[in-house]
């Protein structure tokens, strides 16, 4: 996974880095924020995930050639939180 992320970062200009905001429900504390952040940052192609507990949303920077919003939403749902694209 780490290699995939480095690769994604290297070629970000080649393929294009995109940003998406995903609404997340069910996060209650800083531990939830860390769970969601870590899960997203482990996804291939994701360079950054910024979770806002107050807003109930996460802004994800990802490489469009390696992942997509549906996969990111699914990775959050697999943790047990609600997620939908804004
Ligand atoms: Cu929590």
What features would you describe in this structure?
This protein is α+β, with helices and mostly antiparallel strands. It has one domain (2-85): Alpha-Beta Plaits, CATH 3.30.70. It is built from four helices and four strands; from the N terminus they run ααβαββαβ. The chain has a four-stranded antiparallel sheet with strand order 2-3-1-4. The longest helix is centred in the middle third of the chain and has 12 residues, at 30-41. The chain is globular, with a radius of gyration of 12 Å. The model has no long low-confidence stretch (mean pLDDT 90). The protein binds copper (II) ion. Copper (II) ion binds next to α3. Residues 28-29, 31-32 line the site of copper (II) ion.
Rg to the nearest angstrom?
Answer: 12 Å
Shape: globular
The largest sheet, given as strand count, sense and whether it forms a barrel, is: 4 strands, antiparallel
CATH C-level class is Alpha Beta
Report how far apart the termini are. Answer: 27 Å
Could you state the order of secondary-structure elements as H and E?
HHEHEEHE
Which runs of at least 5 residues are low in confidence (pLDDT < 50)?
A: none
User: What class, by secondary structure content?
Assistant: alpha+beta
């Amino acid at each position: 996974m780490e290699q995939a992320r480095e690769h994604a970062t290297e070629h970000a200009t080649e393929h294009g880095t995109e940003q998406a905001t995903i609404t997340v429900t069910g996060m209650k504390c800083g531990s939830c924020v860390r769970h969601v952040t870590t899960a997203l940052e482990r996804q291939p192609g994701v360079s950054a995930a910024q979770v806002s507990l107050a807003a109930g949303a996460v802004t994800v920077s990802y490489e469009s050639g390696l992942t997509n919003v549906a996969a990111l939403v699914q990775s959050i749902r697999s943790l047990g939180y609600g997620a939908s694209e804004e």
